[in-house]
Design brief:
The complex is a heterodimer. Helix content of chain A is about 35%, strand content about 20%. Chain A is an alpha/beta fold. Chain B has a single domain (about 5-320), classed as Thiamin diphosphate (ThDP)-binding fold, Pyr/PP domains (Rossmann fold, 3-Layer(aba) Sandwich). Chain B starts with a helix and ends in a 21-residue tail after the last helix. Classes of the chains: A alpha/beta, B alpha/beta.
């Protein structure tokens, strides 16, 4: 058995997720993990490495490549009194389980008149940046955020990677957690090693000139853009949405009312994206406070191409985010 | 040694009359539903089970209260046979809050926690993975229950059927797959959609023990289910029963039935599971005319009462439109 990394110790995002799973498994016998290659292989992104040895094959279950069956089985197990964590290797593969997520997990409570609940957590990797081309680079969390009945989380920081899972498992609703592939290798020390909520957005950097709204994989690109802006004397506030459904509209509007300018950064495609929803809420709730049209920085509307230069060009990047922020200031 | 009584249905007079009563309840309930649909009291889709009653009634008699049941959108019969009250089912058809799903589900989404009835799934094949998970929960919590999953032969063309059979056998889960093979997936006959129309053979290719059952014979269904249930409870993994049956009515209320001959329907009607049980029990002396009259009278009364109950039921208030989407208050 390995020991839990201490607060001051260096930890990676990957390890933070692993520790979250370990803690949940230790603390509640109803919790178990299932998914493709989570056991013997150690997880496609090595998140679950070592867990099979520690917890055994009954609780760390390798599944066949049957996304619909094992996501559905997670729903059934949750209905039957367990607290399953289902790992879908990537959001791309989750499309093979859409029926179970959208037609069952999201609806069973309502369709049954509140008699049944589905306390299920589904984790999956999302996003581009590893030159994995069109079928392995999706950011479809915004799609899922469209669906009433599920909650959608996007942990970007080490703290959220470490502590959102516990909150998700304690929640009686089905919760989807999207882990951006470019974050797994990120390391640092856990600043605040305690429980986190899965209700609110967080201001990750304060500023008075413009509000930059991001989540997941784009948070650190957005913080980098804020640094660039600071060098030019522009103080950007950066909001990490953290929770994509339900959206914390209050935090967004409070910031935008102060800065009077907003840029939304979303790795999803612009058309019909989560950024469109955030933009609409700003228009609905803070229209008269705005000094400039809302700007959006999204992925180019193209299946993500393989070559590095094209992939980079297709995704939101700090210079583009900074340029959009300056545009709201007329600069 | 296996307890013979656990496997063989008790063919006492009382038991046979019970099977008959349950099938008549479903038949008369659904005939009333069709009538109420014409009167526009019931709206949406209405899929009648008439002709297939022997499957739900026979199978359900072999289950225990602790077992979980998953059904399809043609599930009025399953809910009734499982013990969900007719009043609550009818009120659900009306969309009233007294309904078994508080009116939120309607005909295709009957749910009942008290009898572990997990619905009412209107996506063909979608219930199978859920049943696998319910079986997994039984096993992981060392409980003796199983998950019984009803589905039509149309579901066999879905990937979820194959994934679910494989996974449940691989993990030796207590799941009873009850295929109601009524020959038509809406209007598509089995031979027109399956390269291998023998469904039990498909199950066997996943090492799932499977058997063909005469789905028009309630006693045969009960006997086969008892045998399957005993095997599943012994821990040997899932079993599939292919119950060959036929729906006498249209797929739904919008179906002009252009895809099948009247002669075929008539031929199957001659094997009506209710008539068959009546004639068999009469011949054997178990059923007297007075018994049948008493059953019919009681069922008519029960159906009429369920209509009154539903008519006097209440509509959900608009203020609570978005209730039960999440646990607790979650702003959109």
């Amino acid at each position: 058995m390995t020991t839990l990394p201490q607060q001051s110790q260096e930890i990676s995002y990957r390890e933070a997720v692993r520790e979250a799973i370990r803690e949940a498994m230790v603390g509640d016998p109803r919790v178990f993990l299932m998914g493709e290659d989570v056991g013997r292989y150690g997880g496609c992104y090595a998140v679950t490495k070592g867990l099979l040895d520690e917890f055994g094959p009954e609780r760390i279950r390798d599944t066949p490549l049957s996304e619909s069956a094992f996501v559905g089985a997670g729903i059934g197990a949750a209905l039957g009194g367990m607290r399953p964590i289902v790992e879908v290797m990537t959001v791309n593969f989750s499309l093979l389980a859409l029926d179970q997520i959208v037609n069952n997990a999201a609806t069973l409570r309502h369709m049954s008149g509140g008699q049944f609940e589905v306390p299920l957590v589904i984790r999956m990797a999302t996003g581009a940046g590893r030159q994995l081309a069109a079928q392995h680079s999706h950011s479809l969390e915004g799609w899922y955020a469209h669906i009433p009945g599920i909650k959608v989380l996007a942990p970007a920081t080490l703290e959220d990677a470490r502590f959102m899972l516990a909150a998700a498992l304690a929640d009686p609703n089905p919760v989807l957690i999207f882990e951006h592939v470019m974050l797994y290798n990120m390391t640092g020390t856990l600043a605040d090693a305690g429980p986190v909520d899965i209700r609110s957005a967080k201001v990750r950097r304060s500023g008075r000139d413009v509000t930059l709204i991001a989540y997941g994989g784009t948070l650190f690109k957005t913080l980098a853009a804020a640094e660039m802006l600071a060098k030019e004397g522009i103080e950007a506030e950066v909001i990490d949405l953290r929770v994509l459904r339900p959206l914390d509209t209050g935090t967004i509007l409070a910031s935008v009312r102060r800065t009077r300018r907003a840029v939304i950064v979303d790795e999803g495609w612009r058309s019909g994206s989560l950024s469109a929803e955030v933009s609409a809420r700003i228009a609905e709730g803070a229209f008269w406070d705005l000094d400039a049209p809302v700007e959006r920085v999204c992925s180019a509307e193209v299946p993500i191409p393989y070559p590095r230069h094209l992939e980079e060009a297709a995704l939101p990047q700090p210079p583009g985010i900074a340029a959009a922020a300056k545009a709201t200031l007329g600069r | 040694m296996t307890d013979v009584h656990a496997i063989k249905p008790h063919l006492s007079r009382e038991h046979l009359l019970d099977l008959l009563r349950e099938m008549v309840r479903i038949r008369r309930f659904e005939e009333k539903c069709a009538e109420l649909y014409q009167q526009e009291k019931i709206r949406g889709f209405l899929h009648l089970y008439i002709g297939e009653e022997a499957v739900a009634v026979g199978a359900m008699r072999a289950l225990e209260p602790g077992d979980a049941v998953v059904a399809t959108y043609r599930e009025h019969g399953h809910a009734l046979a499982r013990g969900v009250s007719m009043d609550a089912i009818m009120a659900e058809m009306y969309g009233k809050i007294e309904g078994c799903s508080r009116g939120r589900g309607g005909s295709m989404h009957l749910f009942d926690a008290a009898t572990r009835f997990y619905g009412g799934n209107a996506i063909v094949g979608g219930g199978l993975p859920v049943a696998v998970g319910l079986g997994l929960a039984e096993k992981m919590q060392n409980r003796s229950g199983l998950a019984a999953c009803f589905f039509g032969e149309g579901a066999v063309a879905e990937g979820e059927f194959h994934e679910s059979l494989n996974l449940s056998e691989l993990w030796k889960l207590p799941v009873l797959f009850l295929c109601e093979n009524n020959l038509y997936a809406m209007g598509t006959r089995l031979e027109r959609s399956e390269s291998q129309p023998d469904i039990h053979v498909k199950a066997q290719s996943y090492n799932v023990p499977a058997e063909v059952v005469d789905g028009m014979d309630v006693v045969a269904v009960e006997a086969a289910t008892r045998k399957a249930v005993a095997a599943i409870r012994s821990g040997s993994g899932p079993v599939l029963l292919e119950c060959r049956t036929y729906r006498f009515r249209a797929h739904s209320m919008f179906d002009p039935q252009l895809y099948r001959d009247k002669a075929e329907v008539e031929e199957w009607r001659r094997r009506d599971p209710i008539d068959r049980l009546i004639s068999w029990t009469r011949q054997s002396g178990a059923l007297h005319d007075a018994d049948l009259a008493a059953i019919e009278a009681a069922v008519v009364k029960e159906v009429d009462r369920s209509v009154e109950f539903s008519e006097s039921g209440k509509w959900e208030k608009l203020e609570t439109l978005t209730a039960d989407v999440y646990a607790g208050e979650v702003p959109p």
